[in-house]
Amino acid sequence: MPGAEFVPVVADVTVEVEAEHAVSDLGAVDVLVNNLGVFGAEDPLEVSDDEWRRYFDVNVLAAVRLTRLLLPGMMDRGFGRVLNIASDSAVVIPAEMIHYGVSKTALLGVSRGFAKAAAGTGVTVNSVIAGPTHTGGVEDFVYQLVDEKLPWDEAQREFMRLHRPQSLIQRLIEPEEIANMVVYLSSPLASATTGGAVRVDGGYVDSILP
What we know:
Helix 1 (16-26) runs parallel beside helix 2, helix 2 (49-77) runs parallel beside helix 3 (98-117) and helix 4 crosses helix 5. Helix content is 45%, strand content 11%. A four-stranded parallel sheet has the order 1-2-3-4, with helices on both faces. It is an alpha/beta fold.
């Protein structure tokens, strides 16, 4: 936005006191995008209790914490946007990372619940179901599942063919394609969209409505 001021804040928002300090440094916030997350392939029978807790601490409770801190101010001002970046894995739980998928399922419920808490205030709360997206971390993940000697373009195609064949675009989504939806949902144009799980999944989720 022209004239906007960039304010860097460094904090571990999985820790309650650090999240509180970060929010106090920022002041009024109109748009909150909860995009913190961890993922990785692991035999579901080998995932420990501590690892399950870590996934919920990072993927769910950090978003809950920041929403709890910032939503009241948005409601008082009569405008605000809360967006939780979820995943197709919330709906189509992957066999190789059940703990990740279930944490993202919880995030869909969190979004719906907070949308109800903000009903009638001018604040909207939505989740964005992102499909398989091209990031550095996903490149590492892809090479966990396909031959690491393959060039990236071939590895990506092999990953999609073997592990994400439901994708209708048959490629990884670029981050800016997710960002385009976030920008729209953050704008006044999306004033009647709340409590939803909006898909940017390349057609991966095989349903008309999530």
